[in-house]
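so my prof wants the structure for this chain in the tokens format not the other one, which i didnt know existed until like an hour ago. anyway here's the sequence
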Amino acid sequence: MLKSLPIVTLLAAALLPQPAVAGCSRIIKVPAAPTGQSVIVQGGKVSGVIPDTLRELGAKAGCTFEFPVMPRARMAFQFLESGQADVMVPASRSAERDLRATFVPMMKWKVELITLKARKIKARSVPALLAQKKLRGVAVRSYVFGDEYNALLRQLELERRIDYADDLAAVGRLLKAGRVDFSVMAPSIFMSTLSEDPAARELLPQLHYQPMDGLPMTESGAYVSRRSLPAADQQALRDLLADSAKGTLWRYFQQYYPPDMLRFAVVPH
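here's what i got, hopefully its the right format
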């Protein structure tokens, strides 16, 4: 018969750190496309507000994240169409996306008309912008800033007055060259992206930002897949992402974005 262990040994074993209970059953795939300071891709390394927030909260919740780098359009396809991705973030909310995945609100963005100061385009509302038939716009392919934004782009497409670029730097180049007259997007994302590009940085002082009636602040956050993840993982991720809005996310926003940019465009949810 085995001898009983001394009580001191049993107590010592009880005080040892216990293995953490995993909050997710596997590594969570979160495609990463450069998005201002929210998602930064440099030399294959992914950082920024969103990845850093997920890594910190994931370590506490028992979830590990993988950030494969890809263009924004491919990211949207993998999440919405092929089911190869588990989370799409940051992502603005839309009725179409709500049909395919579960939205977790994390922040809000101002969406404004962006033009060159030298052009002096006046459009205080969406109808006023659409009424100026000679104006041509540019948007980033697959970017969404809410249902009102989507409706504006659809109308511009019908009138053949919108071009699509692959990234924000290309939007800046088109504006600077005078090939388009305006863009509509979240200014903080646009400003932070241009500030990181030496060739585009000089354009920043030349830009004018103007709110328009008919374009409310867009709710932004994360979409969690109902297709690629089991129910338990979906719930663990919803809880983790909801926790981010309690302070961690805003702390990283303050770390990556200058104060004037935060006041201008980002509001914690």
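also thought this was worth mentioning. The two ends are 62 Å apart (CA to CA).
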